[in-house]
Amino acid sequence: MEPFLKKTANYLYQQYGDNIGDICVVLPNKRACFFLKHYLLQQVEKTIWAPEILSIEDFIEKLSGLKFIDETTLLFEFYDIYKNIKLKDAENFDVFIEWAQTLVNDFNEIDKYLVETKKLFNYIKDNKKIGIWDLQARPLTEAEKKYINFFETFENYYNKLTKKLKEKKQVYQGLAYRTLADKIENISIEWKKIIFIGFNALSKSEEKIIDVLMKNHKAEILLDIDKYYINDKQQEAGRFIRKFKTKWNIDKWEQDNFANNNEPKNINIIGVPQNIGQVKKAGQLLYDYYSKNNKNALKKTALVLADEKLLIPVLNSIPENIEQFNVTMGMPIKHTNIFNLFDAIFTLHENVYKLGKIKNPDNYNFYYKDILKILNHPYFSEIFKTNQVSDNNLIQKIQSSNRIFITNKEIIAHIINIPIADKYKEYLNILTKIFESWQQEPAKAIECLSSVIGFITKQNNNTESGECLTTQATDIEYINNFSEIIMQIKSFLKNYTAIDKIETLHNIFNKTAESSAISFSGKSLADLQIMGMLETRVLDFENVILLSANEKIIPSSKASSSFIPFEIKRVFELPTYKDREAIFAYHFYHLLQRAENIYLIYNADNTENNIFEKGEKSRFITQIINELPKYNPNIKIKQQFLNTPVEDKITSKIEIPKTDDIIEKLKQKACEQGLSPSTLNTFIACSLKFYFHAVAEIKEPEEIEESVDAATFGNVIHKALFDIYKPFINKQITESDITDITNTEIDKATQKSFKEYYKNGDIKHGKNFILKQVANKLIRNFLSKEKDFIKTNKDIKILYLEENFETNLPVNIDSKSTDIKLKGKIDRIDETDNAIRIIDYKTGNTDINELKINDWDDLINNTKLNKSFQLLSYTYLFLKNNPAQAVINNKKTESGIISFRNLKQGLMTLSIPDTDNYINVFEEVLKQLISDIFDTTKPFTQTEKTEDCKYCPFKTICNRT
Q1: What's the per-residue H, E or C state across 829-841?
Q2: By the number of CB atoms within 10 A of the CB, which of 118, 292, 584, 855 ranks highest?
Q3: What pLDDT does residue 610 have?
Q4: Rounded distance, CA 789 to CA 785, Å?
């Protein structure tokens, strides 16, 4: 295989010889320029002047005499014009940029394609007017007038913006293209010849420039074309070249690579579940190439990323034995730790006004999540860990207080007092700087960010090896870029008045950072090239691995952001999605035309995103499957689908053997501290969870409750009812007693209960305020139901409220009788005309089937009976402590649940098998259960019912997330 650029270099040297320095070569991109220089160097055997080799953008910039303006500066220039036109009706900059970027892109396209602007803008305006045309000729509403006015101003915006930019000689690309196209006939060309190489689709301005130069015998064009897609008029890949070939009578080097039987072409089409599967498959292919052959096996190999978001995963999957490769794509700086830190700092201060000021306008309140995000950032967490002085005290203080908003003064006061070695005081100083008030002053924000960059730079230069880790190695490359971004934003603040608040500054920072990328250092001519689809233009490789060969990626989606309707684009010959598809088709087929070993890998998974956009291979793949074998039967196409299931996260069952130490600890806990019904239920549900909780004593991480969760809400109801009923313990309750409980008393009880269980959480606003009202209503409904019950049963006597009960149960452990303490807190025990009732309150749902026991063995085998087990445990504890109470009063003992979700049911009582002495039977169940806990032949293991793991705090340990 002879690469197109190598053939071009040979042609140029043969054609121009020692005078090659008198020509200019123009290529689609800078990567192609580099490779052409490399091939020319191989041709030359003596010192000569090299030709000027330029990318098309550099060529336009050089000949037009205009400089390309960056996107952010362009928006500021546009905003000044917008304000001068709209005056008092002008929107702020944040609203402006939501539509201005789209309009600027339209302006760019309009100029590149030399559209008659006045006519176009009139078309757009009339199109919008027709859209709201009313046959009844009713007057336009104010909204409709503003809508039409928006489109009417396009021409004015365009004229004033282009005039201003030309005066400054800083323009967007399209305007430079139009400017050069308009004056190309009168420009003095310094070169004897301009050679345009490897172009496919050309804009009207590019076409005019080349056309004029060729007519004046100042230019030559060399196209990289193949008969397969040129001669077939149905082939979209050759659509543009067919036009240029006819117009300029180009026939040089038309090849038929797809029909060439002398060079094998093996195409492997591989469907792989998920993006990470594609990446891993690519890594495996590279490893096989390198390992099974030799170091030259990767020669002339391209790993092409149609979806450039896969770059980082790809870099992490390059086999270790491949030492040299070149990444032609830059890594966006928004993927770095520095960007994440800056973004977190901006968000911290933005939310003061979005959230904090709403709660307390007098304070500079930070949202707790924003604080924790900064304290846990790698730049700060590492230094505390290394010096064994953690910022966890501050984190714990925030969490234990349960405060959603904390003032900056409180945070700064705590940071100042953190004990740390003197040489690390700067870490605390910069944290203090970060948490200082910005007061919506962008200048203060930039000063803060400048300090952070200075801090990172200094630490990177001064850090002693092994002491702390402030920056990752990959971040070092980005420090200078961020310094430049800060300097650029400072110039924006100086030259433009649009940045008047932190949110605007944040938008500008993000926009500037998103357009910045750092090039990877590497060997430019390394055998393995990792590149994006557009960077493959004009380049040829023997081995090609293409990732994300999916529909909606190759070609890209039809959707595009533009104010110009599709039909109007067609009238003015502006590019549409059909043109983009033809361009993608050319790039795709060009990548294949000289390659010998081709791997087209696509994401065959329908679960990652939209089911209609994932899992479908590109239509271009379907084309080559159906068409290439007919064109050349020697082309081998192999299709593969790697139906690799998603790795089962439960790769091996976790088992914890019951060692002597564990048994001893269990005995101590069971005999001294006691086992509660909830602890025993935990063992029934999952013995491993029981181990984590009761033996290893792993505590759940304390978290702030932004809104009251179900457990806290249940505790609030329980405590409020306790306070309301406390005066009636050991007393008969009458209807009038219930009637006398006022709404004020109920509200006071819930207020007190929220304060205890929700600590300093806010219940005056939002969802929590509603939940407080719900709590009040539930309690009122409960009291109303209670009053109805008293009418029927005449009296209720409260015996116990929130009472703790204990008893000892002798269990045979290791052939010895051991007294196991059982304990539990019972919500309520009362006495009616005919029964002593043991009542458990539930604020969640309770199904009557959960309280129906058909077989006693089900209690320790069926986790759905956990509420029944709990009620029986409470009944057992009560009767063991009051063995004669029910007998003396000649009343039965019944237990049940009052569900606040279904108060109409009243007390939902427990249903058990007909048994003479059910308490003795249940005691045997308890003994069996506790014996299982201490049985050393049965290790602690995970439950097989993975659906029960959904809300388990230990699910990450078990890999059941």
Answers
A1: EEECCCEEEEEEE
A2: 584
A3: 43
A4: 6
Helical H segments across 133-172, by residue range:
142-152, 154-168
| CATH architecture, range 260-329+527-641 | 3-Layer(aba) Sandwich (3.40)
How far is Cα 273 from Cα 603, in angstroms, rounded to an integer?
Answer: 6
Residues 540-577: tens digit of each pLDDT:
999 999 999 999 999 987 777 899 999 999 999 999 99
Say what the alpha-carbon torsion angle 195, 200, 203, 204 is, to the nearest 10 degrees: 70
CA–CA distance, 111 with 108 (Å, rounded to integer): 5
Best CA proximity match to 225, nearest among 238, 234, 211 = 238
Residue 184 has pLDDT above 60, yes or no: yes
Using one digit for the tens of pLDDT, what is the confidence trace for 7-52? 999 999 999 998 999 999 999 999 899 999 999 998 888 888 999 9
pLDDT at position 473: 44
How many Cα atoms within 13 Å fall on the side-chain side of residue 899?
14
Helix axes 442-462, 425-434, angle to 10 degrees: 160
Asked if pLDDT for residue 53 goes beyond 80, the answer is yes
Of the pLDDT bands very low, low, confident and very high (cuts 50, 70, 90), residue 384 is low
* Cα gap 525→822, rounded to integer Å: 75
Question: Given the structure tokens 């139906």, which residue do they identify?
Answer: 643
What phi and psi values does residue 366 have, to the nearest 5 degrees?
-95, 145
Q: What is the dihedral of CA 653, 659, 662, 664, to 10 degrees?
A: 160
Looking at residue 521, what is its pLDDT? 56
What residue spans define the domains of the chain?
4-66+188-258, 70-171, 260-329+527-641, 335-519, 656-704+797-949
Separation of alpha carbons 617 and 793, rounded Å: 73
Superfamily of domain 4-66+188-258: P-loop containing nucleotide triphosphate hydrolases (3.40.50.300)
**Do 273 and 643 contact (CB within 8 A), yes or no?**
yes
Region for residue 695 given its phi and psi (left: phi exceeds 0; alpha: psi -120 to 50; beta: otherwise): alpha
Give the contacts of 271 (CB within 8 A, at least 6 positions apart). Answer: 601, 602, 603, 604, 617, 640, 641, 642
Instruction: State how far the Cα of 871 lies from the Cα of 828, in Å rounded to an integer.
Output: 12
Pair of tokens at residue 443: 């200048």
Among candidates 384, 385, 380, 393, which has minimal Cα distance to 433?
A: 380
Q: How many CB atoms lie within 10 A of CB 598?
A: 21
H-only helix segments in 463-515: 473-476, 479-495, 502-514
Whether the bond into 313 is cis, omega within 30 of 0: no
Residue type, 643: N
**Quick one: CATH architecture of 656-704+797-949?**
Alpha-Beta Complex (3.90)
Give the pLDDT band (50/70/90) at residue 649: very low
For 398, phi then psi, to 5°, come to: -65, -45
Query: How much is the mean pLDDT over the chain?
Result: 87
Question: At residue 525, does pLDDT exceed 80?
Answer: no
Please provide residue 585's backbone torsions phi and psi, each rounded to the nearest 5 degrees: -60, -45
* Per-residue pLDDT reduced to its tens digit, 902-939: 898 899 999 998 887 899 999 999 999 999 999 999 99
DSSP 552: B
pLDDT for 292: 66
Tokens of 462: 């001064």
Give residues with Cβ within 8 angstroms of 23, minimum separation 6: 12, 16, 51, 52, 191, 192, 193, 194, 195
The pTM score is 0.75
- Closest-CA residue to 686 (of 500, 944, 435, 929): 944
Matching fold, domains 4-66+188-258 and 260-329+527-641: yes
Lowest mean pLDDT among 115-119, 455-459, 676-680: 455-459
How far apart, in Å, are the Cα atoms of 145 and each of 125, 130, 133, 288, 854? 12, 13, 12, 66, 74
